[in-house]
Design goal:
20 helices; 7-stranded mixed sheet; 6-stranded antiparallel sheet; single chain; Rossmann fold; 22 strands; alpha+beta; Calcium-transporting ATPase, cytoplasmic domain N
Length: about 625
Protein backbone atom coordinates (compact mmCIF):
# COMPACT_ATOMS: atom_id res chain seq x y z
CA UNK A 1 0.00 0.00 0.00
CA UNK A 2 1.13 3.54 -0.66
CA UNK A 3 0.95 6.38 1.88
CA UNK A 4 -2.44 7.60 0.71
CA UNK A 5 -3.96 4.12 1.02
CA UNK A 6 -2.46 3.65 4.51
CA UNK A 7 -3.87 7.01 5.58
CA UNK A 8 -7.31 6.07 4.30
CA UNK A 9 -7.15 2.70 6.07
CA UNK A 10 -6.28 4.52 9.31
CA UNK A 11 -9.22 6.91 8.86
CA UNK A 12 -11.61 4.01 8.26
CA UNK A 13 -10.39 2.08 11.30
CA UNK A 14 -10.58 5.21 13.47
CA UNK A 15 -14.07 6.05 12.21
CA UNK A 16 -15.33 2.53 12.85
CA UNK A 17 -13.83 2.47 16.34
CA UNK A 18 -15.26 5.89 17.26
CA UNK A 19 -18.66 4.92 15.85
CA UNK A 20 -18.75 1.87 18.14
CA UNK A 21 -17.48 3.88 21.13
CA UNK A 22 -20.14 6.52 20.52
CA UNK A 23 -22.87 4.00 21.32
CA UNK A 24 -21.57 3.61 24.88
CA UNK A 25 -20.96 7.28 25.72
CA UNK A 26 -23.56 9.05 27.84
CA UNK A 27 -24.13 11.81 25.33
CA UNK A 28 -27.35 13.36 24.19
CA UNK A 29 -28.75 16.35 22.37
CA UNK A 30 -26.12 18.76 21.15
CA UNK A 31 -23.28 16.67 22.59
CA UNK A 32 -24.25 13.63 20.49
CA UNK A 33 -24.70 15.83 17.43
CA UNK A 34 -21.26 17.49 17.88
CA UNK A 35 -19.52 14.13 18.39
CA UNK A 36 -21.26 12.66 15.36
CA UNK A 37 -20.31 15.65 13.21
CA UNK A 38 -16.65 15.22 14.26
CA UNK A 39 -16.63 11.53 13.29
CA UNK A 40 -18.49 12.33 10.07
CA UNK A 41 -15.91 14.97 9.04
CA UNK A 42 -13.06 12.55 9.82
CA UNK A 43 -14.28 10.08 7.20
CA UNK A 44 -16.00 12.47 4.77
CA UNK A 45 -13.85 15.60 4.50
CA UNK A 46 -12.18 14.63 1.21
CA UNK A 47 -15.51 13.74 -0.43
CA UNK A 48 -16.98 17.04 0.75
CA UNK A 49 -14.00 18.93 -0.71
CA UNK A 50 -14.29 17.16 -4.05
CA UNK A 51 -17.99 17.89 -4.18
CA UNK A 52 -17.39 21.57 -3.37
CA UNK A 53 -14.70 21.88 -6.05
CA UNK A 54 -17.05 20.25 -8.56
CA UNK A 55 -19.80 22.74 -7.73
CA UNK A 56 -17.39 25.66 -8.20
CA UNK A 57 -16.38 24.29 -11.62
CA UNK A 58 -19.95 23.57 -12.62
CA UNK A 59 -19.22 19.81 -12.84
CA UNK A 60 -20.82 18.65 -9.62
CA UNK A 61 -23.24 15.97 -10.84
CA UNK A 62 -20.99 13.04 -9.94
CA UNK A 63 -20.76 10.35 -7.26
CA UNK A 64 -19.14 12.79 -4.78
CA UNK A 65 -22.16 15.08 -5.06
CA UNK A 66 -24.57 12.14 -4.59
CA UNK A 67 -22.76 10.91 -1.47
CA UNK A 68 -22.55 14.43 -0.03
CA UNK A 69 -26.26 15.14 -0.49
CA UNK A 70 -27.30 11.73 0.83
CA UNK A 71 -25.11 11.84 3.95
CA UNK A 72 -25.84 15.47 4.83
CA UNK A 73 -29.53 14.74 4.34
CA UNK A 74 -29.28 11.79 6.73
CA UNK A 75 -27.64 14.07 9.31
CA UNK A 76 -30.41 16.62 8.85
CA UNK A 77 -33.09 13.95 9.25
CA UNK A 78 -31.53 12.72 12.48
CA UNK A 79 -31.55 16.25 13.85
CA UNK A 80 -35.11 17.10 12.67
CA UNK A 81 -36.59 13.84 13.94
CA UNK A 82 -34.88 14.32 17.28
CA UNK A 83 -33.82 10.67 17.29
CA UNK A 84 -30.21 11.60 18.05
CA UNK A 85 -29.14 8.79 15.70
CA UNK A 86 -26.62 9.94 13.14
CA UNK A 87 -25.07 6.52 12.57
CA UNK A 88 -26.55 6.13 9.11
CA UNK A 89 -24.95 9.36 7.84
CA UNK A 90 -21.55 8.28 9.13
CA UNK A 91 -22.02 4.74 7.79
CA UNK A 92 -22.89 6.06 4.32
CA UNK A 93 -19.48 7.68 4.06
CA UNK A 94 -17.59 4.93 5.88
CA UNK A 95 -18.77 2.14 3.60
CA UNK A 96 -18.39 4.32 0.53
CA UNK A 97 -14.75 4.95 1.51
CA UNK A 98 -14.30 1.21 2.07
CA UNK A 99 -15.42 0.64 -1.52
CA UNK A 100 -13.10 3.40 -2.77
CA UNK A 101 -10.21 1.87 -0.83
CA UNK A 102 -10.76 -1.57 -2.38
CA UNK A 103 -10.94 0.09 -5.79
CA UNK A 104 -7.63 1.93 -5.24
CA UNK A 105 -5.95 -1.32 -4.16
CA UNK A 106 -7.21 -3.00 -7.33
CA UNK A 107 -5.95 -0.16 -9.51
CA UNK A 108 -2.55 -0.34 -7.83
CA UNK A 109 -2.31 -4.07 -8.50
CA UNK A 110 -3.26 -3.66 -12.15
CA UNK A 111 -0.71 -0.85 -12.53
CA UNK A 112 2.16 -3.00 -11.29
CA UNK A 113 2.55 -5.02 -14.48
CA UNK A 114 2.64 -1.85 -16.58
CA UNK A 115 4.88 -0.12 -14.03
CA UNK A 116 7.29 -3.05 -14.37
CA UNK A 117 7.68 -2.14 -18.03
CA UNK A 118 8.37 1.47 -17.05
CA UNK A 119 11.26 0.30 -14.86
CA UNK A 120 13.23 -0.94 -17.85
CA UNK A 121 14.55 2.58 -18.47
CA UNK A 122 18.29 2.52 -17.61
CA UNK A 123 19.74 5.17 -15.29
CA UNK A 124 23.31 5.05 -16.60
CA UNK A 125 25.65 3.63 -19.27
CA UNK A 126 29.30 2.51 -19.05
CA UNK A 127 31.00 3.93 -22.17
CA UNK A 128 34.52 3.12 -23.36
CA UNK A 129 36.46 6.36 -23.90
CA UNK A 130 40.22 6.38 -24.46
CA UNK A 131 40.60 2.97 -22.84
CA UNK A 132 38.58 3.83 -19.74
CA UNK A 133 34.98 3.25 -18.69
CA UNK A 134 33.00 6.43 -18.13
CA UNK A 135 29.51 6.38 -16.58
CA UNK A 136 27.10 8.74 -18.34
CA UNK A 137 23.38 9.19 -18.96
CA UNK A 138 21.89 7.08 -21.81
CA UNK A 139 20.81 10.30 -23.56
CA UNK A 140 24.48 11.31 -23.95
CA UNK A 141 25.62 8.22 -25.89
CA UNK A 142 25.77 8.67 -29.70
CA UNK A 143 25.38 5.75 -32.16
CA UNK A 144 28.65 3.94 -32.81
CA UNK A 145 29.83 4.15 -29.20
CA UNK A 146 31.23 1.08 -27.42
CA UNK A 147 29.54 0.34 -24.10
CA UNK A 148 30.09 -2.36 -21.47
CA UNK A 149 27.26 -4.14 -19.67
CA UNK A 150 28.21 -6.09 -16.54
CA UNK A 151 26.33 -9.18 -15.28
CA UNK A 152 23.16 -8.16 -13.49
CA UNK A 153 22.87 -4.87 -15.36
CA UNK A 154 20.16 -3.91 -17.82
CA UNK A 155 21.22 -3.35 -21.43
CA UNK A 156 20.78 0.43 -21.88
CA UNK A 157 20.93 0.82 -25.70
CA UNK A 158 20.31 -1.21 -28.85
CA UNK A 159 23.38 -2.44 -30.68
CA UNK A 160 25.59 -5.33 -31.77
CA UNK A 161 27.68 -7.50 -29.45
CA UNK A 162 31.42 -7.07 -30.08
CA UNK A 163 32.67 -9.49 -27.44
CA UNK A 164 31.26 -11.63 -24.67
CA UNK A 165 29.26 -14.85 -24.52
CA UNK A 166 26.34 -14.56 -22.13
CA UNK A 167 22.60 -15.05 -21.67
CA UNK A 168 19.85 -12.48 -21.39
CA UNK A 169 16.68 -12.17 -19.33
CA UNK A 170 14.18 -10.77 -21.86
CA UNK A 171 11.06 -11.28 -19.73
CA UNK A 172 10.41 -7.53 -19.39
CA UNK A 173 10.25 -7.23 -23.19
CA UNK A 174 8.76 -10.51 -24.38
CA UNK A 175 7.23 -12.16 -21.32
CA UNK A 176 9.49 -15.15 -22.01
CA UNK A 177 10.97 -16.65 -18.84
CA UNK A 178 13.68 -18.75 -20.53
CA UNK A 179 17.00 -16.84 -20.89
CA UNK A 180 18.31 -16.25 -24.42
CA UNK A 181 21.90 -16.86 -25.43
CA UNK A 182 23.88 -13.95 -26.87
CA UNK A 183 27.20 -14.08 -28.77
CA UNK A 184 29.49 -11.74 -30.70
CA UNK A 185 27.88 -10.24 -33.85
CA UNK A 186 24.37 -10.85 -32.44
CA UNK A 187 21.94 -7.93 -32.32
CA UNK A 188 20.90 -6.98 -28.79
CA UNK A 189 17.89 -5.00 -27.55
CA UNK A 190 17.88 -2.49 -24.75
CA UNK A 191 15.78 -3.45 -21.74
CA UNK A 192 17.19 -6.99 -21.41
CA UNK A 193 19.19 -8.00 -18.30
CA UNK A 194 22.69 -9.45 -18.79
CA UNK A 195 22.88 -12.60 -16.65
CA UNK A 196 26.29 -14.23 -16.98
CA UNK A 197 29.34 -12.46 -18.44
CA UNK A 198 30.40 -8.89 -19.36
CA UNK A 199 29.33 -7.75 -22.84
CA UNK A 200 30.95 -5.15 -25.08
CA UNK A 201 28.36 -3.64 -27.38
CA UNK A 202 28.57 -1.19 -30.25
CA UNK A 203 25.44 0.97 -30.17
CA UNK A 204 23.53 1.56 -33.39
CA UNK A 205 20.75 3.89 -32.19
CA UNK A 206 20.31 6.91 -30.00
CA UNK A 207 18.47 6.32 -26.74
CA UNK A 208 15.34 8.08 -28.02
CA UNK A 209 15.12 5.51 -30.85
CA UNK A 210 16.01 2.46 -28.76
CA UNK A 211 13.67 -0.41 -27.93
CA UNK A 212 13.29 0.85 -24.35
CA UNK A 213 12.14 4.29 -25.50
CA UNK A 214 9.68 2.78 -27.97
CA UNK A 215 8.15 0.64 -25.23
CA UNK A 216 7.85 3.56 -22.83
CA UNK A 217 6.10 5.64 -25.52
CA UNK A 218 3.72 2.78 -26.26
CA UNK A 219 2.88 2.31 -22.57
CA UNK A 220 2.12 6.01 -22.19
CA UNK A 221 -0.07 5.93 -25.30
CA UNK A 222 -1.91 2.84 -24.08
CA UNK A 223 -3.65 4.63 -21.19
CA UNK A 224 -4.85 7.55 -23.33
CA UNK A 225 -7.17 5.77 -25.77
CA UNK A 226 -10.71 4.94 -24.68
CA UNK A 227 -12.75 2.01 -25.90
CA UNK A 228 -16.37 2.24 -26.98
CA UNK A 229 -17.38 0.72 -23.63
CA UNK A 230 -15.50 3.40 -21.72
CA UNK A 231 -17.01 6.12 -23.91
CA UNK A 232 -20.44 4.62 -23.25
CA UNK A 233 -19.86 4.82 -19.49
CA UNK A 234 -18.73 8.46 -19.75
CA UNK A 235 -21.86 9.43 -21.71
CA UNK A 236 -24.03 7.28 -19.44
CA UNK A 237 -22.76 9.04 -16.30
CA UNK A 238 -23.48 12.50 -17.75
CA UNK A 239 -27.12 11.57 -18.36
CA UNK A 240 -27.60 9.23 -15.39
CA UNK A 241 -26.53 11.57 -12.58
CA UNK A 242 -28.90 14.49 -13.29
CA UNK A 243 -31.64 11.94 -14.03
CA UNK A 244 -31.43 10.25 -10.62
CA UNK A 245 -31.09 13.61 -8.86
CA UNK A 246 -34.30 14.74 -10.54
CA UNK A 247 -35.99 11.44 -9.66
CA UNK A 248 -34.95 11.82 -6.02
CA UNK A 249 -36.35 15.34 -5.95
CA UNK A 250 -39.65 14.10 -7.36
CA UNK A 251 -39.78 11.29 -4.77
CA UNK A 252 -39.24 13.85 -1.99
CA UNK A 253 -41.84 16.33 -3.23
CA UNK A 254 -44.57 14.75 -5.38
CA UNK A 255 -46.01 11.98 -3.13
CA UNK A 256 -46.29 14.14 0.04
CA UNK A 257 -47.74 17.01 -2.01
CA UNK A 258 -50.36 14.71 -3.54
CA UNK A 259 -51.20 13.35 -0.07
CA UNK A 260 -51.49 16.88 1.29
CA UNK A 261 -53.81 17.93 -1.53
CA UNK A 262 -56.09 14.94 -0.86
CA UNK A 263 -56.32 15.82 2.81
CA UNK A 264 -54.13 13.00 4.07
CA UNK A 265 -51.08 13.21 6.34
CA UNK A 266 -48.17 14.34 4.15
CA UNK A 267 -45.30 12.45 5.89
CA UNK A 268 -42.67 14.78 4.46
CA UNK A 269 -39.81 13.21 6.43
CA UNK A 270 -40.72 9.70 5.24
CA UNK A 271 -40.55 10.63 1.58
CA UNK A 272 -37.44 12.76 2.11
CA UNK A 273 -35.81 9.74 3.73
CA UNK A 274 -36.79 7.56 0.75
CA UNK A 275 -35.34 10.16 -1.62
CA UNK A 276 -32.04 10.14 0.28
CA UNK A 277 -31.96 6.33 0.17
CA UNK A 278 -32.64 6.55 -3.56
CA UNK A 279 -29.61 8.87 -3.96
CA UNK A 280 -27.30 6.56 -2.00
CA UNK A 281 -28.35 3.55 -4.04
CA UNK A 282 -28.08 5.46 -7.31
CA UNK A 283 -24.36 6.22 -6.91
CA UNK A 284 -22.87 4.86 -10.20
CA UNK A 285 -19.33 4.32 -8.90
CA UNK A 286 -19.39 0.54 -9.53
CA UNK A 287 -20.16 1.13 -13.19
CA UNK A 288 -17.95 4.17 -13.70
CA UNK A 289 -14.88 2.71 -11.94
CA UNK A 290 -14.97 -0.96 -12.87
CA UNK A 291 -15.09 -0.57 -16.67
CA UNK A 292 -11.85 1.41 -17.17
CA UNK A 293 -10.26 -0.65 -14.39
CA UNK A 294 -11.07 -3.86 -16.31
CA UNK A 295 -9.41 -2.55 -19.47
CA UNK A 296 -6.43 -1.23 -17.52
CA UNK A 297 -6.00 -4.61 -15.85
CA UNK A 298 -6.32 -6.36 -19.23
CA UNK A 299 -3.64 -4.19 -20.82
CA UNK A 300 -1.42 -4.80 -17.82
CA UNK A 301 -1.85 -8.56 -18.14
CA UNK A 302 -1.10 -8.36 -21.86
CA UNK A 303 2.04 -6.33 -21.11
CA UNK A 304 3.28 -9.06 -18.78
CA UNK A 305 2.82 -11.52 -21.64
CA UNK A 306 4.99 -9.41 -23.98
CA UNK A 307 2.02 -7.86 -25.82
CA UNK A 308 1.63 -4.07 -25.80
CA UNK A 309 -1.87 -2.88 -26.67
CA UNK A 310 -2.02 0.87 -27.35
CA UNK A 311 -5.53 1.42 -26.02
CA UNK A 312 -8.68 -0.27 -24.75
CA UNK A 313 -10.43 0.52 -28.06
CA UNK A 314 -8.04 -1.81 -29.88
CA UNK A 315 -8.47 -4.48 -27.22
CA UNK A 316 -12.24 -4.36 -27.74
CA UNK A 317 -11.88 -4.46 -31.54
CA UNK A 318 -9.39 -7.35 -31.39
CA UNK A 319 -11.84 -9.32 -29.25
CA UNK A 320 -14.43 -9.08 -32.08
CA UNK A 321 -11.99 -9.98 -34.88
CA UNK A 322 -13.00 -12.72 -37.31
CA UNK A 323 -10.49 -12.35 -40.18
CA UNK A 324 -6.70 -12.54 -39.74
CA UNK A 325 -4.52 -11.09 -42.51
CA UNK A 326 -0.77 -11.71 -42.55
CA UNK A 327 2.29 -10.45 -44.32
CA UNK A 328 4.67 -13.34 -45.11
CA UNK A 329 8.31 -12.31 -44.77
CA UNK A 330 9.37 -11.72 -41.17
CA UNK A 331 5.86 -12.42 -39.91
CA UNK A 332 5.10 -16.04 -40.77
CA UNK A 333 8.64 -16.77 -41.97
CA UNK A 334 11.89 -16.15 -40.14
CA UNK A 335 12.90 -13.38 -42.53
CA UNK A 336 16.41 -14.85 -42.62
CA UNK A 337 17.16 -15.53 -46.28
CA UNK A 338 19.96 -17.64 -47.69
CA UNK A 339 21.23 -17.78 -51.25
CA UNK A 340 20.51 -21.29 -52.50
CA UNK A 341 21.57 -21.12 -56.17
CA UNK A 342 22.50 -18.92 -59.14
CA UNK A 343 20.82 -19.78 -62.49
CA UNK A 344 21.32 -18.75 -66.13
CA UNK A 345 24.30 -16.56 -65.31
CA UNK A 346 26.45 -15.23 -68.17
CA UNK A 347 29.13 -14.51 -65.57
CA UNK A 348 30.69 -16.67 -62.89
CA UNK A 349 28.24 -17.23 -60.06
CA UNK A 350 30.31 -15.29 -57.55
CA UNK A 351 30.67 -12.40 -60.05
CA UNK A 352 26.89 -12.10 -60.44
CA UNK A 353 26.56 -12.11 -56.66
CA UNK A 354 29.16 -9.33 -56.42
CA UNK A 355 27.14 -7.05 -58.73
CA UNK A 356 23.84 -7.88 -57.00
CA UNK A 357 25.28 -7.35 -53.50
CA UNK A 358 26.84 -4.03 -54.55
CA UNK A 359 23.54 -2.72 -55.93
CA UNK A 360 21.76 -3.78 -52.73
CA UNK A 361 24.47 -2.40 -50.44
CA UNK A 362 22.34 0.48 -49.10
CA UNK A 363 19.19 -1.58 -48.36
CA UNK A 364 18.23 -3.08 -45.01
CA UNK A 365 15.77 -5.56 -46.56
CA UNK A 366 16.37 -9.21 -45.48
CA UNK A 367 16.92 -10.23 -49.12
CA UNK A 368 19.57 -7.53 -49.51
CA UNK A 369 21.32 -8.72 -46.36
CA UNK A 370 21.36 -12.29 -47.64
CA UNK A 371 22.96 -11.21 -50.93
CA UNK A 372 25.67 -9.30 -49.07
CA UNK A 373 26.22 -12.24 -46.71
CA UNK A 374 26.70 -14.64 -49.64
CA UNK A 375 29.20 -12.36 -51.41
CA UNK A 376 32.75 -13.34 -50.41
CA UNK A 377 34.53 -10.63 -52.46
CA UNK A 378 32.38 -7.49 -52.32
CA UNK A 379 33.17 -4.39 -54.33
CA UNK A 380 34.52 -1.41 -52.43
CA UNK A 381 31.85 1.19 -51.54
CA UNK A 382 33.57 3.68 -53.83
CA UNK A 383 32.71 1.46 -56.79
CA UNK A 384 28.96 1.91 -56.23
CA UNK A 385 26.95 5.05 -57.03
CA UNK A 386 23.51 6.31 -58.10
CA UNK A 387 21.59 3.78 -55.98
CA UNK A 388 17.84 4.05 -56.57
CA UNK A 389 15.31 1.91 -54.71
CA UNK A 390 12.04 1.30 -56.57
CA UNK A 391 9.26 0.31 -54.18
CA UNK A 392 7.83 -3.09 -54.98
CA UNK A 393 10.28 -3.65 -57.87
CA UNK A 394 13.88 -3.71 -56.66
CA UNK A 395 17.03 -1.59 -56.87
CA UNK A 396 19.04 0.06 -59.65
CA UNK A 397 22.61 1.31 -59.24
CA UNK A 398 25.86 1.98 -61.09
CA UNK A 399 28.58 -0.54 -60.19
CA UNK A 400 32.09 -0.23 -61.68
CA UNK A 401 30.56 1.96 -64.37
CA UNK A 402 27.90 -0.63 -65.29
CA UNK A 403 24.16 -0.08 -64.92
CA UNK A 404 22.87 -2.86 -62.63
CA UNK A 405 19.20 -3.67 -61.94
CA UNK A 406 18.31 -6.18 -59.20
CA UNK A 407 14.70 -7.13 -58.47
CA UNK A 408 11.63 -8.92 -59.78
CA UNK A 409 10.45 -9.70 -63.30
CA UNK A 410 8.58 -6.40 -63.57
CA UNK A 411 11.84 -4.50 -63.00
CA UNK A 412 13.48 -6.50 -65.78
CA UNK A 413 10.71 -5.42 -68.15
CA UNK A 414 11.15 -1.83 -67.03
CA UNK A 415 14.86 -1.86 -67.93
CA UNK A 416 14.11 -3.41 -71.32
CA UNK A 417 14.97 -7.09 -70.88
CA UNK A 418 13.15 -10.36 -70.28
CA UNK A 419 13.42 -12.43 -67.08
CA UNK A 420 13.83 -16.19 -67.45
CA UNK A 421 11.47 -18.26 -65.25
CA UNK A 422 12.71 -20.28 -62.28
CA UNK A 423 11.15 -23.68 -61.58
CA UNK A 424 12.38 -23.90 -57.97
CA UNK A 425 10.31 -22.75 -54.99
CA UNK A 426 11.76 -19.71 -53.33
CA UNK A 427 12.31 -16.01 -53.84
CA UNK A 428 13.87 -15.24 -57.20
CA UNK A 429 16.05 -12.15 -57.59
CA UNK A 430 16.66 -11.27 -61.24
CA UNK A 431 19.78 -9.32 -62.30
CA UNK A 432 20.31 -7.21 -65.41
CA UNK A 433 23.67 -5.62 -66.27
CA UNK A 434 23.71 -2.80 -68.81
CA UNK A 435 20.08 -3.61 -69.68
CA UNK A 436 20.89 -7.22 -70.56
CA UNK A 437 19.58 -10.13 -68.54
CA UNK A 438 22.47 -11.64 -66.54
CA UNK A 439 20.73 -14.41 -64.59
CA UNK A 440 18.80 -14.87 -61.39
CA UNK A 441 19.56 -15.80 -57.78
CA UNK A 442 17.37 -18.20 -55.80
CA UNK A 443 16.84 -17.28 -52.16
CA UNK A 444 14.81 -19.24 -49.62
CA UNK A 445 13.20 -18.25 -46.34
CA UNK A 446 12.14 -20.80 -43.71
CA UNK A 447 8.84 -20.71 -41.83
CA UNK A 448 8.91 -19.86 -38.15
CA UNK A 449 8.52 -22.98 -36.05
CA UNK A 450 5.30 -21.74 -34.40
CA UNK A 451 3.54 -20.29 -37.47
CA UNK A 452 1.46 -23.38 -38.25
CA UNK A 453 0.38 -23.91 -34.64
CA UNK A 454 -0.47 -20.18 -34.28
CA UNK A 455 -2.80 -20.28 -37.30
CA UNK A 456 -4.38 -23.50 -36.05
CA UNK A 457 -4.97 -21.87 -32.67
CA UNK A 458 -6.62 -18.89 -34.38
CA UNK A 459 -9.07 -21.29 -36.04
CA UNK A 460 -9.85 -22.78 -32.62
CA UNK A 461 -10.61 -19.28 -31.35
CA UNK A 462 -13.21 -18.80 -34.09
CA UNK A 463 -11.23 -16.84 -36.68
CA UNK A 464 -13.13 -17.50 -39.90
CA UNK A 465 -10.36 -16.87 -42.43
CA UNK A 466 -6.57 -16.72 -42.38
CA UNK A 467 -5.38 -14.62 -45.32
CA UNK A 468 -1.84 -13.97 -46.60
CA UNK A 469 -0.82 -10.87 -48.59
CA UNK A 470 2.69 -10.97 -50.03
CA UNK A 471 4.83 -9.42 -52.70
CA UNK A 472 6.39 -12.81 -53.50
CA UNK A 473 5.71 -14.74 -56.68
CA UNK A 474 2.85 -17.18 -57.04
CA UNK A 475 4.89 -20.38 -56.63
CA UNK A 476 6.52 -19.25 -53.39
CA UNK A 477 3.28 -17.87 -51.98
CA UNK A 478 1.33 -21.03 -52.80
CA UNK A 479 4.01 -23.26 -51.27
CA UNK A 480 3.90 -21.32 -47.98
CA UNK A 481 0.09 -21.13 -48.00
CA UNK A 482 -0.21 -24.88 -48.52
CA UNK A 483 2.13 -25.63 -45.63
CA UNK A 484 0.18 -23.28 -43.31
CA UNK A 485 -3.30 -24.29 -44.55
CA UNK A 486 -4.15 -20.70 -45.47
CA UNK A 487 -7.74 -20.00 -46.50
CA UNK A 488 -6.85 -17.27 -48.99
CA UNK A 489 -3.66 -15.86 -50.55
CA UNK A 490 -2.80 -12.86 -52.71
CA UNK A 491 0.68 -12.58 -54.21
CA UNK A 492 2.93 -10.20 -56.17
CA UNK A 493 1.40 -7.22 -54.36
CA UNK A 494 2.87 -3.76 -54.01
CA UNK A 495 2.10 -1.93 -50.72
CA UNK A 496 -0.74 -0.02 -52.36
CA UNK A 497 -2.23 -3.31 -53.63
CA UNK A 498 -2.03 -4.78 -50.12
CA UNK A 499 -4.11 -1.86 -48.85
CA UNK A 500 -6.66 -2.43 -51.63
CA UNK A 501 -6.96 -6.14 -50.81
CA UNK A 502 -7.29 -5.36 -47.12
CA UNK A 503 -10.06 -2.85 -47.81
CA UNK A 504 -11.93 -5.51 -49.81
CA UNK A 505 -11.75 -7.83 -46.82
CA UNK A 506 -12.79 -5.04 -44.44
CA UNK A 507 -15.82 -4.14 -46.57
CA UNK A 508 -17.05 -7.74 -46.21
CA UNK A 509 -16.23 -8.01 -42.49
CA UNK A 510 -17.10 -4.68 -40.86
CA UNK A 511 -14.75 -3.87 -37.97
CA UNK A 512 -13.47 -7.44 -37.67
CA UNK A 513 -10.16 -7.56 -39.59
CA UNK A 514 -6.67 -7.42 -38.12
CA UNK A 515 -3.41 -7.32 -40.06
CA UNK A 516 -0.02 -8.61 -38.88
CA UNK A 517 3.23 -7.33 -40.39
CA UNK A 518 6.72 -6.13 -39.54
CA UNK A 519 8.30 -4.17 -42.41
CA UNK A 520 8.31 -0.59 -43.62
CA UNK A 521 6.12 -1.62 -46.55
CA UNK A 522 3.55 -2.96 -44.07
CA UNK A 523 3.05 0.41 -42.34
CA UNK A 524 0.20 1.60 -44.66
CA UNK A 525 -1.68 -1.69 -44.20
CA UNK A 526 -1.13 -1.70 -40.43
CA UNK A 527 -2.51 1.83 -40.20
CA UNK A 528 -5.55 0.98 -42.38
CA UNK A 529 -6.60 -2.25 -40.64
CA UNK A 530 -9.21 -2.32 -37.88
CA UNK A 531 -6.34 -3.49 -35.68
CA UNK A 532 -2.72 -3.46 -36.87
CA UNK A 533 -0.31 -5.85 -35.11
CA UNK A 534 3.46 -5.27 -35.48
CA UNK A 535 5.68 -8.31 -35.01
CA UNK A 536 8.88 -7.97 -33.01
CA UNK A 537 10.65 -5.21 -31.10
CA UNK A 538 13.24 -5.27 -33.87
CA UNK A 539 10.65 -4.55 -36.55
CA UNK A 540 10.77 -1.30 -38.44
CA UNK A 541 10.06 1.97 -36.65
CA UNK A 542 7.35 2.78 -39.19
CA UNK A 543 5.54 -0.51 -38.58
CA UNK A 544 5.62 -0.10 -34.79
CA UNK A 545 4.42 3.49 -35.05
CA UNK A 546 1.53 2.55 -37.35
CA UNK A 547 0.47 -0.53 -35.38
CA UNK A 548 -2.16 -0.65 -32.64
CA UNK A 549 -0.68 -3.74 -30.97
CA UNK A 550 3.01 -4.62 -30.70
CA UNK A 551 4.21 -8.19 -30.13
CA UNK A 552 7.52 -7.81 -28.29
CA UNK A 553 9.12 -10.85 -29.89
CA UNK A 554 8.72 -12.65 -33.21
CA UNK A 555 6.54 -15.52 -31.97
CA UNK A 556 3.25 -15.80 -33.92
CA UNK A 557 1.72 -17.67 -30.97
CA UNK A 558 1.49 -14.31 -29.17
CA UNK A 559 -1.27 -13.34 -31.64
CA UNK A 560 -3.90 -15.90 -30.48
CA UNK A 561 -2.83 -15.17 -26.92
CA UNK A 562 -3.52 -11.45 -27.47
CA UNK A 563 -6.99 -12.35 -28.77
CA UNK A 564 -7.65 -14.61 -25.77
CA UNK A 565 -6.62 -11.86 -23.33
CA UNK A 566 -8.77 -9.30 -25.16
CA UNK A 567 -11.84 -11.53 -25.25
CA UNK A 568 -11.51 -12.40 -21.57
CA UNK A 569 -11.18 -8.71 -20.69
CA UNK A 570 -14.22 -7.69 -22.77
CA UNK A 571 -16.30 -10.51 -21.23
CA UNK A 572 -15.45 -9.16 -17.78
CA UNK A 573 -16.40 -5.63 -18.88
CA UNK A 574 -19.82 -6.79 -20.12
CA UNK A 575 -20.35 -8.82 -16.93
CA UNK A 576 -19.72 -5.69 -14.86
CA UNK A 577 -22.05 -3.57 -17.00
CA UNK A 578 -24.94 -6.05 -16.78
CA UNK A 579 -24.46 -6.77 -13.09
CA UNK A 580 -24.00 -3.11 -12.03
CA UNK A 581 -26.98 -1.79 -14.01
CA UNK A 582 -29.21 -4.73 -13.08
CA UNK A 583 -28.43 -4.45 -9.38
CA UNK A 584 -28.95 -0.69 -9.46
CA UNK A 585 -32.38 -0.94 -11.11
CA UNK A 586 -33.64 -3.49 -8.57
CA UNK A 587 -32.28 -1.54 -5.59
CA UNK A 588 -33.61 1.79 -6.88
CA UNK A 589 -37.12 0.33 -7.19
CA UNK A 590 -36.94 -1.07 -3.65
CA UNK A 591 -35.70 2.26 -2.33
CA UNK A 592 -38.42 4.29 -4.11
CA UNK A 593 -41.14 1.94 -2.78
CA UNK A 594 -39.85 2.21 0.77
CA UNK A 595 -38.78 -1.44 0.94
CA UNK A 596 -35.10 -0.59 1.57
CA UNK A 597 -33.62 1.42 4.41
CA UNK A 598 -30.38 3.41 4.49
CA UNK A 599 -28.32 0.43 5.67
CA UNK A 600 -29.57 -1.62 2.73
CA UNK A 601 -28.66 1.27 0.43
CA UNK A 602 -25.13 1.41 1.84
CA UNK A 603 -24.49 -2.30 1.49
CA UNK A 604 -26.06 -2.40 -1.97
CA UNK A 605 -23.86 0.42 -3.22
CA UNK A 606 -20.59 -0.74 -1.67
CA UNK A 607 -21.32 -4.41 -2.30
CA UNK A 608 -21.91 -3.93 -6.01
CA UNK A 609 -18.75 -1.80 -6.23
CA UNK A 610 -16.55 -4.34 -4.45
CA UNK A 611 -17.87 -7.27 -6.49
CA UNK A 612 -17.33 -5.40 -9.77
CA UNK A 613 -13.81 -4.36 -8.75
CA UNK A 614 -12.88 -7.91 -7.71
CA UNK A 615 -14.25 -9.17 -11.03
CA UNK A 616 -12.18 -6.55 -12.87
CA UNK A 617 -8.97 -7.81 -11.28
CA UNK A 618 -9.50 -11.12 -13.09
CA UNK A 619 -8.68 -9.31 -16.35
CA UNK A 620 -5.02 -9.20 -15.28
CA UNK A 621 -4.81 -12.93 -15.92
CA UNK A 622 -5.46 -14.46 -19.32
CA UNK A 623 -6.51 -17.84 -17.98
CA UNK A 624 -3.71 -19.55 -19.88
Amino acid sequence: MNRKQKTMLGRMVATGSLLVALQFLPLGGEGMFAASIGIYLLIAYDILMKSAKGMVRGQFLDENFLMTVASLGALALGWIQGAEDYNEAIAVMLFYQVGEWFQSIAVMRSRRSIAALMQIRPDYVHVEREGELVTVSPDEVPPGSVIVVQPGERVPLDGEVLSGDSSLDTSALTGESVPRSIRPSDAIMSGCINLRAPLRIRTNKEFTESTVSKILRLVREATNRKSKSEQFITKFARIYTPLVCSAALLIALVPPTVLLCTGQESAWTTWLYRALIFLVISCPCALVLSIPLSFFAGMGGAGRAGILIKGSHFMETLARARVAVFDKTGTLTRGVFEVMAVHHSEHADDELLRYAAAAESASSHPISRSLRAACVRPFAPSCVSDIEELQGLGVMARVMGHHVAVGNARLMEQVGTHALPCHCVGTVVHVAIDHRYAGHILISDALKSSSASALARLKELGIDRNVMLTGDNQRTAEAVAKELAMDEIHFELLPVHKVEKLEELMSRNKGRVFFVGDGVNDAPVLARADVGIAMGALGSDAAIEAADVVIMDDDPLRIPRAISISRRCVRIVYQNIVFAIGAKVVCLLLGALGLANMWFAIFADVGVLVLCVLNSIRAMYDGK
